[in-house]
Design a protein that fits this description.
Elements lengths: L18 H17 L3 E2 L5 E3 H8 L4 H6 L2 E3 L5 E4 L4 H10 L8 E10 L11 E10 L4 H18 L5 E6 L3 H17 L6 H9 L10 H7 L11 H17 L4 E2 L11 E8 L8 E7 L3 H4 L7 E7 H11 L9 E5 L4 H15 L5 E3 L6 H10 L4 E5 L1 H6 L1 E6 L7 E4 H14 L1
Parallel strand pairs: 1-5, 7-8, 12-13, 12-14
Antiparallel strand pairs: 2-4, 3-4, 5-6, 6-11, 7-9, 9-10, 10-11, 14-15, 15-16
The structure holds adenosine-5'-triphosphate and magnesium ion.
The site of adenosine-5'-triphosphate has 18 residues, from strand 6, strand 10, strand 11 and helix 11.
Amino acid sequence: MNSPIRSIRGMNDILPEDIHYWHRLETTAEQIFAAYGFEQIRIPLLEKTDVFTRAIGSATDVVSKEMYSFDDRNRESLSLRPEGTAGVVRAALQNGLLYGQVKRLWYSGAMFRYERPQKGRSRQFHQIGAELFGVSGPDADAEILALGSGLWNRLGLTNLRLELNSLGNADERSLYRDQLYSFLNAHKNELDDQTNERAERNPLRVLDSKDPKVIALLEDAPLLMDHLGEASCNHYEQLKRYLDGLGIEFHENPRLVRGLDYYCHTVFEWTTDELGAQGTVCAGGRYDKLIELQGGKPWSGIGFAMGEERLVELLRQKDDVVPPVMHAYLVAVGENSTETALKLAYDLRAGIPALRLIVNLNKGSFKAQFKRADRSGALLALVLGEDEIRDGQLTVKFLRSGDEQLKLDFNQVGDWIRKYIDSI
Ligand code: ATP
Ligand code: MG
């Protein structure tokens, strides 16, 4: 006999016992996007590799180490999407969704990165993201942050901390990058190999280090904030005023950089310390240069992506998401009872769309069927025995309360159940 095949490392199944947390997150997100006028877009999982190398930058971890890339049968290099923004921009350009208008889009789905799997970090993971195109001013930044904050409120996630920084424009950043590089280079001997390698490839990434020694050294490093020109400063100051006006608390973190190269001006992260080391649940920023990198005319964009696994874990820890209750289990015993049960259940579900009803399958004694009814969590057992079928009636038993059982004629059942569902 063959041994069973297991899933790929870092690619996890999401089991029925957890699915209600996912539904809670996804339906709440869908509602808030609608409330903010964002339209959903669905893009392919697979894109030409260039979509990501151009957008994300080949010096980033994502592109240089984490992409699932392969040549297809036509020898074209394709990659599983490691993130959503690059593909959304590709799609928006290709379908003429960008210019001359403000466009609000959101997406969700699986992303793939070849990382070291650990708690809060997997190789297939899921993101929900928002992108707002066509506004260069900080009102868009504030609106995007308001959306995020509104979502946490609706989900009851009150312990998230918003960190904020400005990366300035490309010129300011490149000037700063040189200075930071000189600083790091001067301290080369105090830094480990990995940090030195980062400093060579992408010095800003060093600011992101979690190593206490590096963090201590960075205390004396030049700050990007001190290299911003007037326009960049104004953008940032105005955003902070908008956030104050909205009552959204934020913490300025001058060392906050994002792993992807395309960001400019505003960058932000929402973090929690309730998840251990992988505490960032949502991250994003402004990417005004990305659209040009993807071959479009210059156009503004700002967005974020949240990690669904990490948010689901927070919802699980809070443990106040109740799975939807099973209303009824239809027990049927005796000759012809299966036909009657299948038809009755079919009609009831058609007549009462909100009804959750399991019909007994695989026959069995009353005792066996009641056991299954109990295990299903159903509130009611609807019982069809020989007497009931003969009399055109159904017995309703209350499985979770002491209420007296009752008998209903078949033609009364629908109305009774509808009222019962409304009453719970
Ligand atoms: P990190 O520094 O933790 O690797 P990142 O900068 O690579 O994060 P982004 O590309 O900004 O992350 O992705 C946005 C969010 O998606 C993250 O804040 C996180 O919640 C989630 N995320 C990213 N990579 C993973 C992963 N491998 N597994 C689970 N969630 C992830
Ligand atoms: Mg990463």
